[in-house]
Amino acid sequence: MAWDGIEQAEVEYVAILVNNVLWGISCTQTFLYFLHFRKNDKNLIKALVLWLWICDTTHLILTNRGFWVDIVLSDNGFIVSQEYLWASFFTCLVALPCQLFFVYRIWIFAGKFWLIPMIFVPASVYQLAGYIAFLVMNYKTISIAQFYSLQKLLKSIWGVSAVEDTLITLVLFYMLWKQRDGELLGQTSQLLYRVMFIGINTGTWTALVALFALITMTVWPNSMAFVSLNLVISPIYCNTLLANLNARDYIRGARDSYGGTMTGTNTHMTMTPSFRITQQDGMETLEMDMESQAGSNGATMFDQSSANLKLENEGVPKTRTM
């Protein structure tokens, strides 16, 4: 079924419902975050969470009012309400810090490699700057003709967003996959897989929604269905970041499953793991020390914040069987 045959109000209504549900989920996640992590995280992270909730709540109010304006004022046609235009602006205010947050994690994980911010930061800034330009051009008009004339700008914004979110996910997955070692301890491998699972969900959903919005704009330009798809991007960003922050307890589930002893048959030594939690740059870190009877010891460090995992092995024989 072509989008042209679907009533715009019905598509918008479904998008509004999804937006409201996702906002409710983000409220729950925000509450859980402050309940569990308010004492441990830096003020900057807590301010980021509060900022996202305020922007997403404003986005919710604007989209609900915009839908009401469309229903009341539209006369067998689509009206680009100012509420929808401003709601998309708050989507950009949510997307920018979320993307930069994940880019920062990748940058730290990559050893502060300079190319990471050089690639991702301009793309994130372009999305906000591009939409500000789009908003200025439509500030005093809701003309459908002018709106269509600026579709190329919207395509570029959503295209960059989809590409960046996809790259964030792929880069994070690749860097975590490089750390995968078939000879790792079962619990270590379990922890790594949990972090990889969280990492895959970092930018996948926002990238898919932006991609679908771009496709609908290109294939069915007269349906305006892409506007409805754009309405749900803001709460998806919020839930993605909050899920990464709150998932630290989920990752700890693998960490806490460590126990007992392990024997390395290479040197016939018994190694007992001991743990300690440290704080560095606002991130919780779990350090595991291996003390053996043969005098060899090693260290493995797990960064527990939002799917950042760095493995550092010192003094542990590379060849060992479990």
TrEMBL record:
Protein's UniProt keywords contain Transmembrane: yes
Keywords for this protein: Membrane, Transmembrane, Transmembrane helix
Pfam families in UniProt: DUF6534
Domain DUF6534: start-end pairs: 161-250
Biased composition (Basic and acidic residues): 311-322
Parts of the chain that traverse the membrane: 13-35, 47-64, 84-107, 114-137, 157-177, 198-220, 226-245
Domain of life: Eukaryota
Annotated Polar residues bias: 294-308
Segments of this protein annotated with the region Disordered: 294-322
InterPro entries: DUF6534 (IPR045339)
PANTHER family, A to Z: CHROMOSOME 1, WHOLE GENOME SHOTGUN SEQUENCE (PTHR40465), DUF6534 DOMAIN-CONTAINING PROTEIN (PTHR40465:SF1)
Protein name: DUF6534 domain-containing protein
Species in which this protein is naturally found: Pleurotus ostreatus (strain PC15)
